[in-house]
Amino acid sequence: MGQIKDPKCAVCGISLLERACFTESGRGPDFCPTVHAEDLLAEARKEYAKPGVREFARLASVQEGECYLERDRKPFLPHCGKTRIQEVCEFARKIAAKKLGLAFCVGLAHEARLVHDIFAAQGFEVVSVSCKSGRMLKEEIGIQDHEKIMIGTAESACNPILQAKILNRARTDLNVLLGLCVGHDALFFKYADAYTTVLAVKDRVTGHNPLAALYTSHAYYLYLHRPGF
User: Fold this and answer.
1) Residues near 222 by Cβ (< 8 Å), separated by ≥ 6?
2) What angle, rounded to 10 degrees, do the helices at 84-94 and 109-121 form?
3) Is the dihedral of CA 19, 24, 29, 31 positive or negative?
4) For residue 4, what pLDDT is reported?
5) Burial (CB count within 10 angstroms: exposed 0-12, middle 13-18, buried 19+), residue 198
6) Domains contained in the chain, CATH given
7) Predicted model pTM
8) Quick one: pLDDT at residue 190?
9) Is residue 123 a contact partner of residue 97, using CB atoms and an 8 Å limit?
């Protein structure tokens, strides 16, 4: 067996309905993980065979299907009818979650209150923790004054590890991220015990809609294709 190439599914040139990942008779390029990563597929199947993982995955797929309307209508045409926050609440019920952890950025404090109220209205116990909890100064992680947002001040660092540990101690059943910074969100995922889903990500320029830049990357955001910006 030759060296397996790293997959590049994002640039697969095969028509969607002719791909190996979509149909039994499909095909894939030389980097196709469906065709060339049988060993990892076998490992993944072993994980899915574990009772807790299998049921979680099953319910995630059930939730996915329920987002579409008129599924029994032929020909099937995608018709969606559920918002992300509705999905989060429905999925939380499916996995019998009672206590939700909300890890949010202080820049979205208003939105966090709205989310808290909606979760509470749906019968969940909500534990929420902001990114600045603990007031750990940025100097503790090696930030110099000129690297701060507000130069010349005693600036609190975002503390996703503390956010994760607080929610771990609260024994949350499911965590929800709201607007954590790039990198800080990665640390939260690494240190959180409970499964974590994302309600919204931070994008300070587009009103927290990062896909807006992608949809206009052929025009107004064309500079994104310039190496190094």
Assistant:
1) none
2) 50
3) positive
4) 76
5) middle
6) 27-82 (no CATH), 83-229 (3.40.50.1860)
7) 0.93
8) 98
9) no
Handedness of CA 50, 64, 130, 141 (dihedral sign): positive
How high is the mean pLDDT in each 10-residue block of the chain (229 residues)?
Answer: 81 95 94 93 96 96 96 93 97 98 97 98 98 96 96 97 98 98 98 98 96 96 94
Helix, strand, coil abundance in the chain, percent, nearest 5? 45, 10, 45
- Which H, E and C letters describe 81-115, residue by residue? CCCHHHHHHHHHHHCCCCEEEEEECHHHHHHHHHH
What's the pLDDT at 2?
A: 55
Q: What's the rounded Cα separation, in Å, for the pair 229 and 158?
A: 26
Strand, coil or helix: what is 166? helix
Cα-flanking dihedrals φ and ψ of residue 132, to 5°?
-95, 5
